[in-house]
Design a protein that fits this description.
This is ANGE2 protein. InterPro entries: ANGEL2_N, CCR4/nocturin_mRNA_transcr, Endo/exonu/phosph_ase_sf, Endo/exonuclease/phosphatase. One of its GO terms (molecular function) is 3'-5'-RNA exonuclease activity. Residues 134-143 have a biased composition (Basic and acidic residues). Residues 228-544 form the Endonuclease/exonuclease/phosphatase domain. This protein has helices at 2-8, 17-27, 47-55, 62-69, 108-113, 118-122, 142-148, 157-179, 197-208, 216-221, 235-240, 255-269, 281-293, 376-393, 417-424, 468-478, 484-495, 574-578, and strands spanning 192-194, 223-231, 273-280, 297-303, 310-317, 321-330, 344-352, 362-368, 404-409, 426-428, 503-505, 510-512, 528-529, 534-535, 538-543, 562-569, 595-602. α14 links the parallel β8 (362-368) and β9. The protein has a domain at 192-198 and 222-468 and 501-546 and 559-603: Deoxyribonuclease I, Chain A (4-Layer Sandwich), CATH 3.60.10. It is built from 18 helices and 17 strands. α1 packs antiparallel against α3. Strands 1-16-17-2-3-5-4 form a seven-stranded mixed beta sheet. Strands 6-7-8-9-15-12 form a six-stranded mixed beta sheet, with helices on one face. A two-stranded antiparallel ribbon has the order 10-11. The chain is α+β, with helices and mostly antiparallel strands.
C-alpha cells in the first residue's frame, strides 16, 4: 500500500500537479490521483520515473495529508516546476524534513488577515525535495525543456484556464481586501539623505512633483544638478554568467522584461547626467538611445574593444548642459602585454547652461574596470590611463582643474589600495600583492608582487597619472625664466627618479559621495547583490569645493570653486536586498543599484 501511495502521489509528468491537479484530489480521498494506465502506473510518467515511483518508499505523515486537504492548497505551486531549478527527484528518505508549511497555515481568519500576495504565494513553494542530476539532457521531460528554452507549455490550455479560474475564485476576495494596504510588491524603499535643509525642501518637490522650486535669484547664483551611475547588466553578460542568478525566476531575466524596468527607474530618478555601464551595443542602438533621447538626453557611447558587445554611455539633459568635447579611452594596447583587456572609459567636458556670466565647465568620466580580482596590476594601469585623460581634458585657462565627477564600476571594495589611491591621491605599492589591490577576495589568490614600475615607459603615462608629454610641457613652462642648460638638467632630475619610484600620485582632490557604512550600526552598504556576493564596487567620486572640507558633505561654499554635495540617494544593506530576493528582482532589473547624487556648482 505504501509503495502505491508513493507512486500515485508523485505524478511528475503533470506540470500543474501542485496546483489544480492536487485540488481535484482534495474532493475525495487525500491519496486519490489521476487514473492509472494499463500497467498500473501513471500514464504520463517517463519510464525512468515510473521505475523510480515503484522503487521509492516515502514516509508521509499527517502534516502532509493535512496540507494537501487544506482549502488554500490549491493556491500553491510545487517548487519542482520552477523553470530555473534542477528537476527534483524523491529519495528513499523521510519527506517530512523537506516540507514546510505556508506562512499563513492555521485558522482561516489568520489566512485572511495575513499580509500576503497572491502572485507571490503562487510562485513560492510549499515544500522542497532534494534535487539530483539527470544522466543526460535527453532524459528531461519535454515540459521542462520548454520552460528552459523560454517557450510556453501549451499542452493543456483548458487545464491552465481551469486552474486560473479556481485560484481566482478562492483567493480574489482576500487579494482585493489586501491590495489597498500593501506597497508595491518586491520593493525596498530608498530615501534621500540631505546635507542642506534648503536642498531638502527643494528636492522633495523636484522628485515627487517633478517640478523645480528654484527662485529666479537662486537660479542666477547657483547651478544644481544630479548625476547617476548605474551598471544596467548587459544581457550577454547575464547569459554568460547565469550561475550568478540562480536565485532569480527565469522570466525576470529576459531583456524584454528587464528594459522597461530599467527605463522606469531612469525616468523616476530623473537625473541630469547618466553614467551607464554594461550597455549592450545592439540594445543601445535599437532601444536605449532612442528611449533616452525622447526623455531629453543627448547620448555619448563607447563600446568595449575586441569582441565585447557592451560598453559605457554618458547621457546628459540638453536643457542643463551642452557638449564641449567627448573623449573615449581604450585600455587595450596591442604593443603592451600588460594591457590585453578590452575595458574602456569615456570622458566628457560639459558646459552648464547657467543664467549668469561664467565660463565654468564640468568634466564627467565613466568607466568599468577589469573584474579579475587577481590582476590588480591591470586595474591600477587602467585607472592611471583614465586619470591621465581626465587631467588632459579638465585643465582651465588659469591652470586649475574644472569640477570633476568620476562614475563607474571599479570592481574594487571600499578601503582597498585602489580605492584609497582614488580618494587620497597617493599610493605606495612597494611589496603589494596584485591580488590585494582591489580587495575583492578575503583570501586573495594573486600573490605575485607588483613590479616597479607597474606599466612600461612606452605607455606614455607618468607615476603622477598624467601624459608625460603634458608633464614635460608643464615643466618647461614653469622653467621659462631658467637658462636652457639648467632647464635640461632639471628635466633629467625630475624624470629619472620616477622610473624606480613605487609611489603613484594624482592631483584631482576627489571625495566619495557615499560613506559605504550605515552611520548608526556600521553595517556595510552594498551596490551589487547576486547569488555569489553582495559588496560595494560602484562609486561616484567628485572634486570637492574646499580642500579642507573635501570629506564633509554640505560644507560651506569655497571661493576656490568646485562642487558641493547636497544630497544622495541612500544605499541598502545586503539584508535589505535579500528581503526582495536580491538582485535582479521583480522591480529592479539589474544586479547593481543605481547611485544618485545632487551637486551644486560653486563658481570661482
Amino acid at each position: 500500500v505504501l509503495r502505491r501511495r508513493a507512486e500515485l502521489a508523485l505524478p511528475w509528468g503533470d506540470p500543474l500537479w501542485g496546483c489544480w491537479g492536487c485540488t481535484k484530489a482534495v474532493a475525495g480521498s487525500p491519496w486519490a490521483g489521476p487514473a492509472l494506465g494499463p500497467t498500473g502506473r501513471h500514464s504520463m510518467l517517463p519510464r525512468h520515473m515510473q521505475r523510480l515511483g515503484r522503487d521509492c518508499i516515502a514516509h508521509w505523515n499527517g502534516s502532509q495529508i493535512l496540507t494537501l486537504n487544506s482549502p488554500v492548497y490549491s493556491c500553491m505551486r510545487w517548487a519542482g516546476h520552477y523553470p530555473w531549478t534542477a528537476f527534483p527527484f524523491p529519495v528513499s528518505a523521510d519527506f517530512s524534513a523537506n516540507w514546510r508549511f505556508p506562512q499563513f497555515f492555521g485558522p482561516w481568519r489568520h489566512f485572511q488577515n495575513s499580509n500576503w500576495d497572491l502572485d507571490n504565494f503562487v510562485q513560492s513553494s510549499c515544500f522542497h525535495l532534494p534535487k539530483s542530476s539527470m544522466k543526460s539532457e535527453g532524459e528531461e521531460p519535454l515540459t521542462k525543456k520548454r520552460r528552459l528554452s523560454g517557450q510556453s507549455d501549451t499542452a493543456a490550455p483548458e487545464e491552465e484556464k481551469s486552474f486560473s479560474n479556481q485560484k481566482e475564485a478562492l483567493c480574489l476576495s482576500v487579494a482585493q481586501n489586501e491590495e489597498k494596504h500593501r506597497s508595491k510588491k518586491g520593493t525596498v524603499k530608498r530615501h534621500w539623505e540631505y546635507f542642506c535643509q534648503h536642498s531638502r525642501t527643494m528636492k522633495i518637490k523636484n522628485f515627487e512633483n517633478k517640478e523645480t522650486d528654484q527662485s529666479n535669484t537662486e537660479s542666477e547664483a547657483k547651478f544644481d544638478f544630479t548625476v547617476m551611475s548605474y551598471n544596467i547588466l548587459s544581457q550577454n553578460l547575464l547569459e554568460d554568467n547565469s550561475h550568478l542568478y540562480k536565485h532569480c525566476r527565469q522570466r525576470l531575466l529576459i531583456w524584454t522584461y528587464r528594459f522597461p524596468n530599467i527605463l522606469q527607474e531612469i525616468k523616476q530618478l530623473d537625473a541630469d547626467v547618466l553614467c551607464l555601464q554594461e550597455v549592450q551595443e545592439d540594445h543601445y542602438r535599437t532601444e536605449i538611445k532612442s528611449s533616452l533621447e525622447s526623455l531629453g538626453y543627448h547620448c555619448e557611447y563607447k563600446m568595449r574593444t575586441g569582441r565585447k558587445p557592451d560598453g559605457c554611455a554618458i547621457c546628459f539633459k540638453t536643457s542643463k548642459f551642452s557638449l564641449i568635447s567627448s573623449n573615449p579611452v581604450e585600455f587595450f594596447r596591442h604593443d603592451i602585454p600588460l594591457l590585453d583587456r578590452d575595458n574602456i572609459g569615456l570622458v566628457l567636458l560639459l558646459q552648464p547652461r547657467l543664467h549668469c556670466k561664467t565660463n565654468a565647465a564640468v568634466c564627467i568620466a565613466n568607466t568599468h574596470l577589469l573584474y579579475n580580482p587577481r590582476r590588480g596590476d591591470i586595474k591600477l594601469t587602467q585607472l592611471a590611463m583614465l586619470l591621465a585623460e581626465i587631467a588632459s581634458v579638465a585643465p582651465q585657462k588659469d591652470g586649475t582643474f574644472c569640477p570633476i565627477i568620476i562614475c563607474g564600476d571599479f570592481n574594487s571594495v571600499p578601503g582597498s589600495p585602489l580605492y584609497r589611491f582614488i580618494k587620497e591621491g597617493k599610493l605606495n605599492y612597494e611589496g603589494l600583492a596584485i591580488g590585494k589591490v582591489s580587495g575583492q577576495e578575503q583570501f586573495p589568490r594573486g600573490q605575485r608582487i607588483l613590479s616597479i614600475p607597474i606599466w612600461p615607459k612606452k605607455l606614455g603615462i607618468s607615476q603622477n597619472c598624467v601624459y608625460e608629454i603634458k608633464q614635460q610641457q608643464k615643466e618647461e613652462n614653469a622653467g621659462e625664466k631658467i637658462e636652457a642648460a639648467k632647464l635640461g638638467n632639471s628635466q633629467e632630475i625630475v624624470i629619472a627618479p620616477e622610473k624606480l619610484s613605487s609611489k603613484l600620485q594624482h592631483h584631482l582632490n576627489l571625495s566619495s559621495v557615499y560613506s559605504h557604512y550605515l552611520p548608526e550600526s556600521g553595517i556595510p552598504e552594498v551596490t551589487t547583490c547576486h547569488s555569489r556576493s553582495a559588496v560595494t564596487v560602484d562609486y561616484i567620486f567628485y572634486s570637492a569645493a574646499n580642500d579642507n572640507t573635501a570629506a564633509q558633505p554640505g560644507a560651506e561654499d569655497s571661493f576656490h570653486g568646485g562642487l558641493k554635495l547636497l544630497g544622495r540617494l541612500a544605499l541598502l544593506t545586503e539584508k535589505d536586498l535579500w528581503t526582495v530576493n536580491g538582485l535582479p528582482n521583480e522591480n529592479n532589473s539589474s544586479d547593481h543599484l543605481p547611485l544618485l547624487a545632487k551637486f551644486r556648482l560653486i563658481e570661482r
